[in-house]
Every structure is written in structure tokens, then in C-alpha cells.
Amino acid sequence: MNSLQDIFISYGRVDSKHFAEHLNQRLLALGYTVWFDVDSIPQGVDYQKQIKDGIAKADNFVFIISPHATNSSYCRKEIEHAVALNKRLVPIMHVEEISQEIWQTRHPKGSDQDWADYCRLGQHSCFTHMHAEIEKINWNQVNFSDPANFESSLQALNELFQQDQPYVHQHTELLIQALDWERNQKQNQYLLIGEECQQAEAWLGKRFKDRQPPCIPTNLHCEFITDSIKNTHNLMTQVFLCHAEPDRHLAEQVQYTLMRAGITTWTHHHDIEFGSDFQAAMTQGMEEADNAVFLISPHSLASTYCQQELNHALALNKRIIPILAREVDPQQIPKPLQPLQYIDLTDNLIPANYQQDESDLLRIVKRDAAYYNEHKVLLTKALKWERQQRNPCILLRGYELQHAQAWLKLAQQYPNHGPIPLQHEFITISERQPPGISLDVFVSYSRTDADFARKLNDGLQRQGKRTWFDQESIASGADFQQEIYRGIETSDHFLFILSPSSVNSPYCADEVEYAARLNKSIVTINYRAVAPADLHPDLAKVQWIDFQVNGTDFATSFQELIRTLDQDPEHLGCHTSLLMQAITWDKKKRRESLLLWGDELLDAEQWLIKAAGKHPQPTALQGNYVAASRRASTRRQRRLIGSLLTLLVLAVAGGGVALVQSKIAANQTNIAQQKQQEAEIIAQSLTTDNLLLSNLNIEALVNGISTARQVQNQQDNIQPDKALRAAASLRQIVYSIKEKNRLDAHIGSVWGVSHSPDGTLLASGGKDH
Question: Closest Cα to residue 379, out of 285, 453, 307?
């Protein structure tokens, strides 16, 4: 945007050339950039094209009023081009009319009759042929007709330029981008993305409540910005505009009313590509819209297509907004529409009448917009799920599912626009999924490549891959950045679409860096040629799969991608699962209750051992998580043994009482005697040399704990002295044992063992190589 100018100066050479040159110099001195033909048009170029380009790239169109300027066909063309682009027009008075003396100096051979004819044609005055758009603007504060007032008029002009300058400048920036989009056949790759799109949407929504705006968006502005918004929302829209072809002019008027308010629209003459299936495209357009605006006219009531669109909207429980475009017999209006209040365009006699209708339409579309948007999103997902033979990869997960469940409860308040049975079933089946399912692929891309990304995402889902794709995976109201990070965390692969836009995008770079920090499996596909120097270091070291637009067969490259994604799924699945647990543990202040125990811990330790030499490698957080789990497990084991010793001491005391009572009782049964003998055998086993000191290893500890449990179960029958000896023996085992853990990975002798600096990994070598 370096070629943009602050000011374009239009003037009549005969009357105002010297004044225009002086004004140009003063404006330059004030720091403005100025398009002035004397300085700005190089030799040997299309003069008219340069002028049009200069007007488009200037924030303000300054017209120096003089008789020559208002009577010049060239100046009129400049004004009309500025008006067509909705530029801020700044007329400044220089010469109201010329005298006969001045005329005579320019026409030395002219007669009095020539002068009379000149005046009769009005060419001596600036007012006779002044352009209507210039004529209606107040220029009293910027009047340079009196040279003595030059400085005060210049100050007033400067203040005018500063007023609403950011808004006017953004008008120019967006116009240049929109014109570039139009010149390139309105391809999606030229649309706005990210923060630029958000800023443009905010600009389009700005209103000047108490005063006239300095300039207004053109229809091209509106189309460019709303198409950019549409592209960021998976091509879904807020309004499907249903009309017959003879009503196209009225339909376009309604469409631009909606787009001027930043509302995305679908029409068959704008959104159906040549060569596409007309009926299928219209069906999809209706499904992917929040509302159906139906233009009622004799033509639409007789149209088979319009009737099909209306029936489809009713079947999907869409909100229908009827607009009476032309007079019709009320009895001919379809029955489902008859109870609805419609907007009547047939009684509009003055512009204010249409403005009221416009206000009513916008109010209806914006009312409960969040509800109808969610209705559309869930509907399109449910239909996609059904059309792909109920592909489980499309089911809802996480925040998406929670959002859908909340919406389902809210839908009870909208009996006429509630969920269809398929939406109910889709949400119910999603609820039945087992928790904690990881995803296969996170798709990272630039929105300029959204068409290709959508195609790729659909193909992956059809191949049974669970994908994270922002246009489908982020529910409205969710924290966008947190959902992206969560998507990367829960996916086995990080898939990056290479293009000049993506490798230079700060948003994509942030995603790459987060995936790299998590040691994710990074897969790159080359969609548009990029300079190697522009690649992020973590992308540069990955061999890409070639999907370039020209000369590459999509199906062949796609199969190569699937083969890449299918490599070592068990390792990748364990990496993702353990990473998710470790991240949760870390985020929740490393609570002990979130650590691994038992078989889960053993499996994690075995995975860390097997991960040596594999890609991707475990992260430091995963290693710390497993190490903390092992330490906690050891502490728990020791606490358990301590508890058993306590129980054993209590068993001694209880056994003593039981023994005294048993000696006093004369009728002790043979069963009690048998239990006492069993208890004594158990207690004796704790004192055997074989258990105690011959092999102070894990087996001794396990056997000791097992025997202690048996002593506890026989506490009513054990003799006190043997119970004491058993407790002492168990205590000696606990405090004397040397072996804490065991690695049974080698067959034969171990020659060497080394541990990593952070203490999370062991590397050993032995006779078995």
C-alpha cells in the first residue's frame, strides 16, 4: 500500500494551473502525499489509466472549481470516476467566472460577438455546468477565490483532511484490495483473512449517527468484505436470497442492503460456479444459511426452483423472511407463508419508505442471530455425517458437543425453528462416544488457501481420519486461541499447508511453534511454491508432499499423504495420550491425584523406553510426568507397608487378649485350634532366613507384604511373641531392601547403564546386543 496518496488534485489548466501548482507545494510541505498530474504521470503511458489509478489510490478527491474545470469533459470524467468509487469529494472555489478582459487575453482575435456566444453557452461561469455531486457540497469554508484568504482557507482544508482520516484511508486501502480481487476473477486467495478481515468488518459496520459520513462503501467494498467473512466461515452465510430471475434487480437491491450491514448472502447468480450442478448448489446454499429471504412476486410463485427452495427451507426448519416484491393475489401466496408478517416493498413511493423496510429487514435478520447460526452449523454437520454413511470422524467432541447440548435445550423456545430429527440423532450419537479420543490430524493453513484446505479436510474425513479443522471444530463463543492449542495437543499429526501466505503468517507461525514445543509429528504439503528462506526452521527440516496446483495429480499426492499419516499409529497414539495427561497435570498445579498408577504407569515407562530413536520423541513434560508418577508410586508403596506394620502391631495386642480369653474358656473348639496353628505358621514364615536376608529384592518385599496381610487376617489366633517377631522381620525387610525397581529388558549380562541429565530415561547395553 506504499503507492497510496492522501490527495488527488483535479483542476482546469487554463484557469488554475499556477494556483494548483502552488497548492500542491504547500500541501507537500504540510506532509501530505499528493497525486498531481504534472508530477505524477510519467512519459509514454496511458494518460487516462494513470488518472483513474491515481483517483482510486487517493483518500481525498480535491476539485478546484473554475469555469474551465466545470466545463471540461476531462474534469467531468475525473469527477464521475471519483463518484463511482465513493471518494471523499473536496471542492474548493478558485474562480467563479472570468471577465471579458481575461477571455480576450486568451483569445486575442476574438470579437465581442464571440464573447457573447461564449457567455451564452455559460462557459465564462463555474456554475452553469457544475457537476451535481460537486454542486450539493458546501465549500464556503474552503474558498480560495480571494488570494488574501489563502492561509485561512488552507488551514480549513487541512482540518477537513484530518477529520475522520483513519476511516477515509481504510476506505482507500480496502478499495484497492477489492479492485485487485475483481481483476483476478474474484478468487478466494485474494480475500481478506485474519485480523485484516475483522478490521474490515468493523469498518463496514461503522455508523455516523449525528452527521454525514465522509464517504460510504461502494457495492464492491461490501461484496469484497462479506465474501471474505463468508470464506472464514466455511462458505456458510446468514441469508439465502430466493427470487425469480425477472426480480433480479430488486434482489440485488436487497442483497446490497444486507451486505452494507456486513451480512453474508447467497444468491444463485453470485454463488453457483459455471459447470456446477445447479440444483445441488442451491440445496447446499439453503442448508448453509441461517435465514431464507423469499421475494414474493408473480414470477417467484410460478417458478419451480423457487418452490423447491421454499419447501427445502420448511423441511429444515429454517427461519423464512417473506418480502412482497410485487403485487400478487393473497390467495396465491403459499400457505406456510400466509401467517407470516411480510415486508412490503410495493408501497415505497420515496427513498424514506425503503429505508424503513431496510431497517425492518436488518432487525429481523439480527434478532436471535446466534441461535440460527448454531442451528445451521449443527445441521450442516449432521447432514455431512449422514451423507458419509455416518462417518464417526464427523461426530461432535469437547466444547463443540457441550455447546450443541446447550443449544438443544435452548431450541425448546423456538417451536417453529427447532432441530430436525437428524440433528437430535447426531447429538445423541456424539454423546455416546468414549471419552478422551485423540484426533489424527490438525490442519494448519492460511485462509487464502481455504478452498484447498476444505477439499483436503473432506478427503481426510472420508478416509476415516479424525481432523481438527478450524472452520468445523471451533464452536461459536469458544476461546479461539485456546481451542487451537487444544486441537494441536489432541492430534497425532500437525499438517501444514505450505504457501506464500501461510509461511508468512504470524498466526500459522505460532501454531508451528506450539506443535514443535510438543514434539508433534509435523507433516507438510506443498500447495503453492514458497521460497526456502521463508520457511520456519521446524518446517524446513521436514520433507514435504507435493500438492502444487499446476502439474500435480491430487489423488496421487493424497494417497502419499495417507501413507505418511498411517506410519506407526501406536507410537503416535501413545505420544498424544500421554501428552494430554501430562498437560492436564501441569495445568492443574501437578496434583498427585492426576498421576499415573499401576498398569498405566508401567505402560508409560515401557513406551518411554521404546520411544528411543523414534519420531516424534517424548517431551520433557512427558518424562517429568512419568518420573513424578514413579516417585509418587514408591511413596505410596512405602506408606502401604507402614500401614501394614501398624495393623500388625494392633494384631499383636488383639491377639494377646484373644489368647488370654482362649486359655480361660474351657470349651474352645477344634476349629479355633486349627486357625491358631495356621496363624503361627504364617507368622513363622516371616522369620525364615529365606525370606528375610538371603535375597533383599522386590520378591522379598512382595512376599513380606502378602504374609503381613495374612497375619492381619488371622490376628485373633496369633500368639503374641510370634506376632512381634513377624513385625520385626517385616520392618527389617522394608528398611534393608536395596532394590527399588527392575528393568527386565536384557537377556544375559548387562555391560553398562547410563541415565539422562533430567533423570527420566535410562539407556543400557548388554551381552544380547
Answer: 285
> Is 79 a residue whose pLDDT tops 80?
yes
- 230: number of CA atoms within 13 Å, CB side? 28
- Note the pLDDT tens digit of each residue in 653-673: 444 333 333 433 434 445 455
Residue with cell 476539485: 63
Give CA–CA dist 673/692, Å, rounded: 28
**DSSP letters of 95-142?**
-SB--HHHHHHH-TT--HHHHHHHHHTTTTBSSTT--HHHHTS--TTS
Arithmetic mean of pLDDT, 10-24: 95
Please say if the pLDDT value at position 189 is more than 70.
Answer: yes
Which region holds residue 229: left if phi is over 0, alpha if psi is between -120 and 50, else beta?
Answer: alpha
**For residue 614, what is its C-alpha cell?**
523414534
Q: What residue type is 64 in one-letter code?
A: I
Rg (CA), the chain: 40
Which pLDDT score is estimated for 717? 59
Q: Which is nearest to 719 in space by CA: 760, 753, 673, 755?
A: 673
Cell numbers 497510496 label which residue? 4
The CA-atom distances, in angstroms, between 705 and each of 697, 719, 729 are 13, 19, 11
Q: Are the beta carbons of 703 and 691 closer than 8 angstroms? A: yes
For 224, phi then psi, to 5°, come to: -60, -45
Give per-residue pLDDT as tens, 347-405. Answer: 887 878 888 999 999 999 999 999 999 999 999 999 999 999 999 999 998 888 999 99
Closest-CA residue to 10 (of 50, 62, 56) = 62
Using the 8-state DSSP alphabet, how is residue 233 labeled? T
pLDDT given at position 552: 63
Burial class (CB in 10 A: 0-12, 13-18, 19+), 27: buried
Residues 6+ apart with CB under 8 A from 635: none
The string of pLDDT tens digits covering residues 167-188 is 999 999 999 999 999 999 999 9
Distance CA 706, CA 666 (A): 34
How many whole angstroms separate alpha carbon 186 and alpha carbon 460? 28
The number of helix segments (H) and strand segments (E) in the chain equals 35, 16
H-type alpha helices, 184-247: 194-204, 219-232
Q: What angle do CA 140, 141, 142 make, to 5 degrees?
A: 90
Angle between helices 248-260 and 219-232 (to 10 degrees): 70
Cell output for 357? 423496510
Instruction: Please state, in angstroms and rounded to a whole number, the distance separating the CA atoms of residues 55 and 214.
Output: 16
Phi/psi of residue 184, each to 5°? -100, 40
Amino acid 42: pLDDT: 74
Query: Greater confidence, 77 or 736?
Result: 77
CB 407 within 8 A of CB 374: yes
pLDDT at position 119 over 80: yes
Burial class (CB in 10 A: 0-12, 13-18, 19+), 202: exposed
Residue 135 identity: E
What's 337's DSSP letter? G
pLDDT for the residue numbered 762: 84
What are the pLDDT digits (tens) for 547-576? 886 556 888 899 999 999 999 999 999 999
C-alpha pair distances (Å), 431 with each of 405, 478, 574? 9, 19, 24
Cβ atoms of 306 and 409 closer than 8 Å:
no
Segment holding 183, helix H or strand E = helix 165-183
DSSP string, 384-445: HHHHTTS-GGGS--HHHHHHHHHHHHHGGG-TTS---HHHHHHHHHHHTSPTTPPEEEEEE-
Name the strand (E) or helix (H) holding 93: strand 88-93
Question: In sequence order, what are the residues at sequence separation of 6 or more whose Cβ sits closer than 8 angstroms to the Cβ of residue 656?
Answer: 720
Residue 114 corresponds to which cell in the numbers above? 464571440
pTM of structure? 0.75
Other beta carbons within 10 Å of 453? 24
Query: Is the pLDDT assigned to residue 722 strictly greater than 60?
Result: no
Does an H or E element contain 354, and which? Answer: helix 351-366
The pLDDT of 35-56, averaged and rounded, is 85
